[in-house]
Amino acid sequence: MNWPATERHCLTPAPGGLALVQELLNTAPAGHADPVDLLADGALDRAQEWADQAVRGWSRETGRGDVRLVLAADDLPQLRCLRHQLRRALAAGDQGGDAVRFTSAPVVVALSGDGALTVEPEGAGARWLASAVLAEALLAQASGVWRRLKICRNEDCAAAFYDRSRNNSGVWHSVRGCGNAAHLRACRERRRAQS
After folding, report:
1. For residue 16, with 0-12 CB atoms within 10 Å meaning exposed, 13-18 middle and 19 or more buried, which class applies?
2. Looking at the predicted structure, is the pLDDT value of residue 175 above 80?
3. Mapping DSSP to helix (H, G, I), strand (E, B) and coil, where does residue 191 land?
4. What is the model's pLDDT at position 103?
5. Which of 7, 110, 148, 192 is 20 to 30 A off residue 135, Cα-Cα?
6. What is the pTM of this model?
7. What is the DSSP string of 138-172?
8. Strand 160-162 and strand 117-121: pairing?
9. Does position 34 have pLDDT exceeding 90, yes or no?
10. Cα Rg, the chain, nearest whole Å
11. Residue 52 pLDDT exceeds 90
């Protein structure tokens, strides 16, 4: 499993480092499919196992060396807060809502010998993970792919997915699952209204 939180929704990960952002978003309870919050208080072992796999996947996707991230119990509320802020930011982007203010997340911007800029996360625990996630979000915005990261419109699901549609019009992580259910509900409501 490369991205365990995303794969529990049967989703394909976002490209490159943006998959780390998607992965953090998908640690939230997955509705009826998997009601477990991977960052719940009292579940430090589960959170550490998730973080190990997610950071390993990020390292592989971005061509970085191995990173060892150690989470502490007080990191879990901070990560849940970051997850919530990211969900609000994605929703605000779609609907023109209020801006979301993030807490400090330090990064190092370095200039290599060939003139390329790199952004490297800094800190430990939740601080390092916030730094990596926000750096990847910034890079995704700069490259124009941030707008393709979305939250499924089905409130019972709320999976984070990468919209691969040509015109970036996807609203459900699964048209067959969540989309079909929404269409069926709408059809039933129309029939009730006509009766």
Report:
1. middle
2. no
3. helix
4. 64
5. 7
6. 0.85
7. HHHHHHT-GGGEEE-S-TTT--EEE--STTS---S
8. unpaired
9. no
10. 18
11. yes
CB within 8 A of 184, min separation 6: which ones? none
CA 156 centroid distance within chain: 17
Residues of the chain with pLDDT > 70, as a percent, come to 79
Statement: residue 171 has pLDDT above 90:
no
Query: Could you give the C-alpha distances from 39 to 104, 115, 135, 175, in angstroms and in order?
Result: 20, 39, 21, 28
DSSP category for residue 13: P
Least confident of 2-16, 149-163, 180-194: 180-194
Contact 158, 150 (CB under 8 A): no
Work out the angle at residue 180's Cα, subtended by the Cα atoms of residues 175 and 182, and round it to the nearest 5 degrees. Answer: 110
Let me know: does 182 contact 153? Beta carbons within 8 Å.
yes
Helix, strand or coil, per DSSP, at residue 121: strand
